[in-house]
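Q: I'm writing a short explainer about Response regulator for a general audience and would like to include a description of its predicted shape. Could you first generate the structure from this sequence?
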Amino acid sequence: MTEHVLLVDDDPVVRDLVREYLQGHGFAVSVLYDGAGLKRRLEMERPSIVVLDVMMPEQDGITALRQLRATGDNIPVIFLTARSDVIDRVVGLELGADDYLPKPFDPRELVARIRTVLRRQSTVSPGAPEIRPSYRFGPFEVDFAARELRRNGERVPLRSSEFATLKIFVKNEMTVITRAQLNERLRGHSATYRDRSLDVSIWRLRRLIETDPSEPRYIQTVWGQGYIFVPQGETGAAERYGAGSPVAG
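A: Of course. Here's the predicted structure. Afterward I'll give you a sentence or two in plain language.
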């Protein structure tokens, strides 16, 4: 089974370089731009390990790990940080980090540490399921097993293409997803397509989940890049988070 790494780092250059290197060494990689979304991400998918940057503007890695461990979640975590402060390292390890790698680092060392932690983890606990049964945002619940969307407990009819599109969005919350990435994940290739089926699926989704589809709050357009799913329905998120490199887990 392919080992899955969730990389949490606010630097788009680091995200892209590390993701490309890890994928080249056989890992599946998804990304998250900030520690504030870590707990929610782990509620809907279960990576093999989390590589977590310490220094991030919205929520730092130490706070994110503290909150995660407070819930009893023991998923393996490797810290990345530009700090050389021994106190930060000690605090991180005491909170339950499995390893600690200072920046700048050789990506070969990161691969070695990931494999070491995963080997150690495999001897003490069985693998967890990759995806949790459901995901909630606003008044909605996405049931992955039943492939259903419910609003306040009532089923919302969705076509299979619309559910597949929604699933990609909720698995990549607060991450800019380009049209090419959506097309590749939905169709299994990255070739340019001529029909407007993707536009239709997004338009239909917006009509179902948005109060005003002309001013969407959940599926927001990032002009010139793609789309971003905002589970809290925060207006203006596309402008704030669209400046980074568009990636999708």
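A: For your explainer, you could say: Residues 107-122 form the longest helix (16 residues).
Q: Perfect, that's easy to follow.
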